[in-house]
Amino acid sequence: xxxxxxxxxxxxxxxxxxxxxxxxxxxxxxxxxxxxxxxxxxxxxxxxxxxxxxxxxxxxxxxxxxxxxxxxxxxxxxxxxxxxxxxxxxxxxxxxxxxxxxxxxxxxxxxxxxxxxxxxxxxxxxxxxxxxxxxxxxxxxxxxxxxxxxxxxxxxxxxxxxxxxxxxxxxxxxxxxxxxxxxxxxxxxxxxxxxxxxxxxxxxxxxxxxxxxxxxxxxxxxxxxxxxxxxxxxxxxxx
Length: 239
Ligand SMILES: NC(=O)c1ccc[n+]([C@@H]2O[C@H](COP(=O)([O-])OP(=O)(O)OC[C@H]3O[C@@H](n4cnc5c(N)ncnc54)[C@H](OP(=O)(O)O)[C@@H]3O)[C@@H](O)[C@H]2O)c1
What we know:
Layout: E1 10-14, H1 19-30, E2 34-39, H2 42-51, E3 59-63, H3 69-82, E4 88-91, H4 108-132, E5 138-142, H5 155-175, E6 181-187, H6 208-220, E7 229-232
Parallel strand pairs: 1-2, 1-4, 2-3, 4-5, 5-6, 6-7
Helix pairs in contact: 1-6, 3-4, 4-5
The structure holds NADP nicotinamide-adenine-dinucleotide phosphate (NAP).
NADP nicotinamide-adenine-dinucleotide phosphate (NAP) is lined by residues 15-21, 38-41, 44, 64-67, 92-96, 115, 142, 144, 187, 189-190, 192-194.
């Protein structure tokens, strides 16, 4: 590992092949960080790898379904084989399916919790030894404005995002005295694959790069400052 004043950062972003995760990988690759990411589809990961190949850091990608605990643990094991520290972990993977609690399909809550909460819970626990060895280690959890307010058609997605914010708050308390910063990011509507085909003016939603910029800005603060929560909405408000 580099030992100068500005060592290269080791950054793991889950779900980095699209949308907000991809914007974060790109932003941090531009800062010459090493990037490790994962998703379920290897073709998208290959595209990402090619797009980021102009930057100086490593770009490592893994095909993993983080909704399955076994795969999460195996993935953490693979990460430990290639890196012995993580400076920034972004628990970004998530999936959104609209619906209402009373009408949505059986199993929807389980699927949302597996993908949006348990993925972050199991991965963070498994990677903690590497995070503890990081330089100014920082964990980001990609929550949502749906972590704070219920809204029509939020259904089980909203429940899982409330839970992820709870996870983030508890982790913050537990790591306060251990030199590990924890930030919950709560974005409103942001252009990404989840909004593909939406017939809305471009300026009605935020750009994924805006969220990536917030991640880097929060990380850049001194180690004595922890941005606990960032809520960010489109200028025109929620949809
Ligand atoms: N966009 C918004 O308006 C918005 C607002 C608030 C919060 N968020 C949150 O921000 C995060 C990113 O959202 P996004 O809109 O950028 O989504 P997106 O464009 O759909 O990208 C999601 C990423 O996660 C990966 N992924 C999904 N399920 C996975 C699984 N089971 N295992 C591994 N990887 C998986 C996807 O790749 P594969 O499909 O190939 O697996 C992709 O790389 C999510 O947690 C979302 O809830 C988004």
